[in-house]
Write a structure and sequence with these properties.
The complex is a heterodimer of chains A (581) and B (443). Chain A folds into four domains: 73 residues, Thrombin, subunit H; 256 residues, 3-Layer(aba) Sandwich (Rossmann fold), CATH 3.40.50; 73 residues, RNA polymerase II/Efflux pump adaptor protein, barrel-sandwich hybrid domain (OB fold (Dihydrolipoamide Acetyltransferase, E2P), Beta Barrel), CATH 2.40.50; 132 residues, Bovine Mitochondrial F1-ATPase, ATP Synthase Beta Chain, Chain D, domain3. In chain A, 32% of the residues lie in helices and 24% in strands. The longest helix of chain A has 24 residues. The radius of gyration of chain A is 28 Å and the shape is globular. Chain B is an alpha/beta fold and 443 residues long. Chain B folds into three domains: 71 residues, Thrombin, subunit H (Beta Barrel); 257 residues, 3-Layer(aba) Sandwich (Rossmann fold); 90 residues, no CATH class. In chain B, strand 14, helix 3 and strand 15 form a beta-alpha-beta unit. Chain B starts with a strand and ends in a 16-residue tail after the last helix. The chains are: A alpha+beta (581), B alpha/beta (443).
């Protein structure tokens, strides 16, 4: 097939205009711009205009480009290569493995492309089909063991209709590009199969059968698991001003969530944060598998100083990889940090194209794009009844920390859980600084529904009483109110607050969460007869101290039960003593 | 090579010029040649057919339609050599200290970012001797962190202090939109501290064109990056990035770009990020640390707001003090577990109590604060400010930590501070035997 060609007609940062010289051009296809020094810059057609003019967004720095430079259209949309070898990788927003690029240059020089998957590594392939079998796109043809699980090998999802297996290779060692079988359609056209295939990043993979998210996914973060949970296949967003703890929360989720595969899309954020993840994770052990945490992780790093146009691609790429692992029957968690940077990238391009701007100069279609992205999360029932899920948690970085802006608003409409981060809480060092009153989730909690209501009621009461105290002073409220207030404060201090940097306190298992909740409930339900604000405060101070000491002990520590009993006695003793007076 | 000269200038703006020309490269350098032979620099920023848009380093004032434009066939570069140490340059890379021009290797400016796999996780604490920094917001080598302050606060003094008091191998000062006396201050301070031999200054003052001002961070960072690649620990001071952003806004406006927030271009975030992200601890080489200044009235203003999302924290200066709330070092967790076992815990406990005290300040306005605990919190707040928030003292970290314990013991009972029993046993000063704190007269 003759490839279409064109030439550059205008250059404005990452937006390049081109005129088609020959052939047809598809909106969304990939093109390469060839510079004077023969470097080839990858770009994507984002608009086709009158008289054979197109707009390209270039995924690299456009310096030294000239009017008249050649454009080679590929006829193919932007794709991601799917197959064994993705887990443990760190790539840029276009799936170039960063460690491989690092062997060529220290800096991210332009025009470098590396095969996304290692094409030299041999995988032990076991076929699961035989000659004459009928297959279609998505059929499993075999598997290879990869790190934590058996990686299924599929007929490329893009193939439609029925095919007959004409040839299958024997079990043995193959690379991702080796032919492992041949299939033929009714018309006699043959297709060679390999272990890896490509899928366009902007097209959601169709569900085999879609189901709804209703099983909570334990995250190890108490305030989430108890009050504002996320479900397998659900979606959540955590908007917040800078410095409120978005990044720490994301890292915590990446480490402790009970997902099979975690994909981190570091989109337009600090490079240092991605580095922390991919340099630390290989050294950390996942307690659930006993293997390195990196074995279940894939990182897409398109950080803030990398070319802007690739930000959008990076989020879609991460999502597509997530959908692929969902097809494997796994529970996948995708963390996108931050969707605001992706939206800003769209704003930059839209502005250069001189589109009529919407609110805050974001393009009018921003909300549609955001909703469509989160819709790619979900639960999928696969052939044979196996279930897979993809959960998406997106960070939003609203300008000025004000949630009343287009990206936050569109995200709130599209996600099932909202974790609003608050600067007031982070200033008070009440981490995670997730707003206890304004956040919400429509997914089921690890606690019972009534228990959640019980906690939320106490928190709301506590807040009301706190504002009364500010207005009227401690003397202006009754002892009963003051006790209720102290209980709410205690709940916050020992249960909702969590030290993510502490080995023990940083992650709470569902079992321990239950234990802690029961203890908190006991304390709250124990009637208190103490009189006087000073005395009441002192009583709760002692309980808080004992509870915090308990939180920092491992369950198998010999002190654990001792500390627990100390706490129980403290709760009983103080109320008992006061009763006797 | 003979370079073609063009004469048909289309338009001249405050900082932008358009001309018809062919075979021109994006971001190519050019010279504006005045009828009397004077020359000024310019750079291509956009191409559209045969229309070329240039930004003028000397500004558009005085450029006439009979000026000629000569394209130089090279991108923006800056000289780099050890002989530059001790020297002062302008925003177009020319020496302005009266010294000779140097023959130096030319290096690229605003190059691509370093591959993240070549970055190390920053682990080396920078001790500044400022308690609010060392105890509460420890700085780490390769960090990028600005001071947020209103115009008029002594931020440049703090900037120069930190640079001079640390063990940086090379200090690069990038002054953008400086008043002449600020420029003079930096010069004097660096000389007094005996750091001149390891300092290079790139200075743009208010009398220079905004395009030169825009270039300053790029030049400073390109040179610093070279030093870092040679294994040096380089410190870059950038003051003031709000002015820089303002120049960016002016230029975007001159190009008829659609403004996003408050007239700033939609790519303000990316523009700031590509500068700040130059900070790195490079595997197998040295490091580049950036201390910036972002002047502001309100933290939700687009410049501090975008900056906060990019930098690894910020130091918030108000009324000459460093504020605890609003200040943040994102990298402190990398180092403050290796200083002293009580460091992290006491840092958090002090902050929680101060936050409780702040609530009482609000309540005090209603006249509702009468109980003993609240009154003690308010006293604690006063002590905290006096002892810990002054940015111009020098206290070793260990002494500052002891001071924190002293302050807690002065105002609180052990069970009120929310610290683990183990730490309290080890560090609590019994019976007011303070190590550092001097008892106040009213006690």
């Amino acid at each position: 097939m003759q490839k279409s060609t064109g030439k550059v007609t205008s250059v404005s940062e990452s937006l390049v205009g081109a005129k088609i010289l020959e052939g047809a051009v598809m909106n969304g296809e990939v093109a390469y711009i060839v510079l004077e020094d023969e470097k080839r810059l990858k770009a994507e057609v984002i608009d086709v205009k009158e008289e054979g003019n197109v707009f390209l967004q270039v995924f690299e720095d456009t310096r030294w480009m000239k009017v008249g430079d050649a454009v080679e259209f590929t006829g193919l949309p932007l794709t991601v290569k799917l197959g064994p070898g993705i887990l443990g990788l760190v790539t840029d927003g276009l799936q170039n493995p960063l460690y491989e690029l690092g062997k060529i240059e220290w800096f991210l020089e332009r025009g470098l492309e590396v095969d996304p998957l290692d094409t030299t590594k041999k995988w032990p392939f076991t076929p699961k089909i035989s000659l004459g079998d009928k297959v279609t796109g998505g059929s499993v043809i075999g598997s290879v063991p990869e790190k934590l699980f058996e990686h299924k090998i599929f007929v490329p999802f893009s193939l439609r209709g029925e095919y007959t297996v004409e040839k299958v290779m024997n079990a043995g060692e193959y690379t991702v590009d080796d032919c492992i079988g041949v299939i033929v359609d009714d018309a006699g056209n043959t297709t060679e199969l390999t272990m890896a295939f490509e899928w366009p990043v902007k097209i959601p993979m169709p569900f085999h059968q879609r189901s709804v998210p209703e099983t909570p996914m334990p995250t190890g973060i108490r305030i989430l698991d108890a009050l504002f949970p996320i479900a397998y296949g659900g979606s959540a967003c955590n908007p917040g001003p800078f410095g409120a703890g978005k990044t720490v929360l994301q890292h915590s989720l990446a480490r402790h969530s009970q997902a099979d595969v975690v994909i981190i899309a570091a989109c337009g954020e600090r490079a240092g944060e991605a580095v922390e993840v991919f340099k630390d994770f290989p050294k950390l052990t996942d307690p659930r598998t006993g293997k390195s945490l990196m074995d279940r992780t894939y990182i897409v790093g398109n950080t803030s100083s990398m070319p802007v146009a690739a930000r959008e691609a990076s989020v879609y790429m991460a999502t597509t990889v997530g959908e692929y692992f969902r097809k494997q029957g796994l529970n996948v968690l995708m963390l996108a940090d931050s969707t605001s940077r992706w939206a800003q990238a769209l704003r930059e391009t839209s502005g250069r194209k001189e589109e009529i701007p919407g609110p805050e100069a974001f393009p009018m279609y921003i909300s549609t794009l955001i909703s469509a992205l989160y819709d790619r999360a979900g639960v999928e029932i696969l052939e044979g009844g196996l279930t897979g899920s993809l959960s998406i948690i997106g960070t939003v970085s609203p300008a000025g920390g004000n949630f009343d802006e287009p990206v936050t608003q569109a995200t709130l409409l599209s996600t099932g859980a909202f974790w609003g981060l608050s600067r007031a809480l982070s200033d008070a060092r009440k981490y995670p600084a997730i707003d206890r009153i304004d956040s919400n989730s429509k997914y089921p909690s690890l606690l019972e529904h009534e228990e959640v209501t019980y906690l939320l009621e106490l928190l709301r009461d506590g807040q009301t009483i706190a504002s009364n105290i500010i207005l009227m002073g401690e003397k202006g409220i009754t002892d009963d109110s003051y006790i209720r207030y102290q209980k709410a404060e205690l709940l916050d201090a020992v249960f909702l607050q969590q030290n993510s940097f502490h080995e023990v306190d940083g992650v709470t298992t569902p079992k321990r969460l239950r234990l802690m909740f029961n203890m908190v409930k006991d304390i709250i339900d124990t009637p208190i007869e103490i009189k006087g604000k000073q005395e009441i405060r002192s009583h709760f101070n002692f309980i808080r101290q004992a509870f915090l000491d308990w939180n920092y002990l491992k369950p198998d520590d010999k002190e654990f039960e001792k500390q627990k009993n100390k706490l129980v006695n403290l709760v009983k003793l103080r109320s008992h003593v006061e009763e006797n007076i | 090579m003979l370079r073609k000269t063009y004469e048909n200038i289309d338009s001249i703006g405050r900082a932008i010029l358009t001309i018809k020309a062919k075979d021109i490269h994006n971001k190519e350098m050019a010279e504006v040649i005045y009828p009397d032979g004077r020359k000024a620099l310019a750079q291509v920023i956009a191409l559209d057919g045969d229309q070329v848009t240039l930004q003028l380093f000397g500004g558009g004032f005085g450029v006439s339609t009979d000026c000629k434009i000569r394209f130089l066939g090279k991108p923006v570069q800056v000289g780099f050599s050890d002989d530059m140490l001790g020297r002062i340059y302008s925003g177009n890379g020319q020496p302005i200290d009266g010294g000779p021009e140097l023959l130096a290797d030319m290096v690229r400016v605003a190059g691509p970012s370093i591959n993240p796999v070549k970055r190390l996780i920053p682990k080396e604490m920078i001790r500044t001797g400022v308690p609010l920094i060392d105890v509460f917001n420890s700085l780490v080598r390769s960090q990028k962190i600005p001071i947020f302050a209103k115009a008029g606060e002594p931020y440049n003094r703090l900037l120069a202090n930190i640079a001079a008091q640390t063990d940086a191998d090379v200090i690069i000062i990038g002054g953008v939109g400086l008043k002449y006396d600020e420029y003079h201050y930096f010069r004097k301070r660096i000389e007094e501290a005996g750091s001149k031999h390891k300092t290079i200054m790139f200075i743009h003052t208010h009398r220079d064109s905004i395009v030169e001002g825009l270039m300053v961070p790029d030049l400073a960072l390109a040179v610093a990056e070279q030093f870092a690649l040679q294994g040096k620990n380089a410190f870059v001071l950038l003051s003031d990035m709000t002015q820089w952003s303002d120049y960016l806004r002016q230029l975007a406006n001159a190009q008829d770009q659609i403004p996003a927030n408050q007239g700033y271009p939609g790519d303000l975030y990316s523009q700031l990020a590509s500068r700040y992200e130059k900070a790195a601890d490079i595997d197998g080489a040295g490091s580049l640390t950036i201390l910036g200044v972002t002047t502001m009235d309100d933290v939700t203003h687009p410049v501090p707001d975008n900056t906060g999302y990019i930098t690894e924290g910020q130091l918030y200066m108000k009324d000459g003090y460093l504020e605890l709330f609003g200040s943040l070092s994102r990298l402190k967790q990398q180092v403050n577990d290796k200083t002293r076992p009580d460091h992290r815990s006491i840092m958090n406990a002090m902050a929680k109590l101060l936050s409780e005290a702040e609530e009482r300040v609000k309540a005090q306005k209603f006249g509702s604060v009468k109980d003993d605990y609240s009154l003690r919190l308010l006293e604690y707040r006063k002590t905290f400010q006096k002892e810990l928030m002054d940015p111009f003292v020098y206290v070793e970290l260990e002494d500052a930590l002891d001071l924190c314990w002293d302050i807690l013991a002065l105002h609180f009972k052990k069970e009120e501070v929310g610290l683990s029993s183990k730490l309290i046993e080890q560090y609590w000063p019994e019976e007011r035997k303070f190590k550092i704190l001097k008892e106040m007269s009213h006690e």
